[in-house]
């Protein structure tokens, strides 16, 4: 069975939330850095780099796991997602952050003022967007809402063109899924043109530079942080 991205996430809202909260889909393999093992490493790193406590999870997913986690850590974080069901589930699971969650499409201008957030996380989202949309709308908008010296964490599937795979993690039936792949150097160049600079590698003890890992499908990812000027 083949799904368009939004329809897929509507169909599997509860299953995606379960996988997220189990962290069963968050263990990385073949990592390029010894300090990168799973989602929590990225969450800790972006909060270390951020100049303040205001954050945005752009594409927070079913149940808004990371928005809730950061709230419990004392951060003031908002979450947006294009799938209504993902936001509704997050509000149901975590009523204490219900007013921080809203439906918004990363293919359109964001509903926030300039320089609203100290950090923005956009994890495994642009792989659902056409490259033209990502370059002309999504990345400019994500950087627009960052404060000076703010930090963007960007994670995405890498490669060339569009790929369709069979995902076996959603029950007995395998699900055919299609993703847009990206060249990490091209994405970084777009961000540099927007006035951002790559947070460099800091040796074995701190995450930085271009980092790579595989997920459970398996597919290859890149993740990095850039800082606004």
Descriptive report:
- This protein is an alpha/beta fold.
- The protein has a single domain (5-228), classed as 3-Layer(aba) Sandwich (Rossmann fold), CATH 3.40.50.
- 31% of the residues lie in helices and 27% in strands.
- It has helices at 5-11, 13-22, 39-49, 65-72, 84-93, 131-144, 184-193, and strands at 54-58, 76-81, 101-103, 117-123, 146-157, 162-167, 175-180, 196-198, 211-214, 220-228.
- Strands 1, 2, 3, 4, 5, 8, 9 and 10 form an eight-stranded mixed β-sheet that branches. It has a two-stranded antiparallel sheet with strand order 6-7.
- The termini are far apart.
- The relative contact order is 0.17.
- The model has no long low-confidence stretch (mean pLDDT 89).
Hey, roughly how much beta strand do the residues contain?
25-35%
**CATH class term:** Alpha Beta
Measure the end-to-end span. Answer: 45 Å
Please, what is the average pLDDT? 89
- Which stretches are poorly predicted, pLDDT < 50 over at least 5 residues? none
From the coordinates shown, what is the CATH architecture?
A: 3-Layer(aba) Sandwich
Enter the CATH topology name: Rossmann fold
Full CATH superfamily name = Vaccinia Virus protein VP39
Helix content: 25-40%
Number of strands: 10
Q: Looking at the structure, what is the overall shape?
A: globular
Secondary-structure element string: HHHEHEHEEHEEEHEEE
Rg is 16 Å
């Amino acid at each position: 069975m083949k799904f368009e991205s939004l329809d897929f996430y509507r169909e599997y809202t509860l299953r995606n939330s379960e996988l997220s909260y189990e962290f069963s889909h968050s263990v990385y393999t073949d990592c390029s850095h010894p300090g990168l093992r799973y989602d929590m490493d990225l969450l800790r790193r972006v909060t270390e780099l951020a100049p303040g406590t205001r954050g945005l999870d752009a594409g927070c997913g079913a149940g808004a796991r990371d928005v809730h986690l950061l709230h419990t850590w004392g951060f003031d974080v908002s979450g947006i997602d294009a799938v209504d069901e993902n936001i509704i589930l997050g509000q149901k699971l975590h009523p204490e952050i219900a007013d921080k969650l809203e439906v918004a499409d990363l293919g359109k201008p964001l509903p926030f003022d300039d320089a609203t957030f100290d950090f923005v996380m956009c994890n495994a989202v642009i792989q659902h967007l056409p490259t033209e949309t990502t370059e002309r709308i999504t990345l400019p908008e994500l950087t627009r809402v960052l404060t000076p010296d703010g930090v963007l964490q960007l994670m995405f599937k890498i490669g060339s063109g569009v790929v369709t795979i069979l995902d076996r993690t959603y029950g007995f039936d395998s699900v055919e899924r299609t993703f847009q792949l990206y060249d990490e150097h091209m994405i970084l160049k777009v961000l540099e043109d927007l006035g951002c600079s790559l947070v460099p590698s800091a040796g074995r003890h701190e995450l930085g530079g271009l980092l790579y890992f595989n997920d459970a499908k398996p597919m290859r990812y890149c993740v990095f942080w850039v800082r606004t000027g």
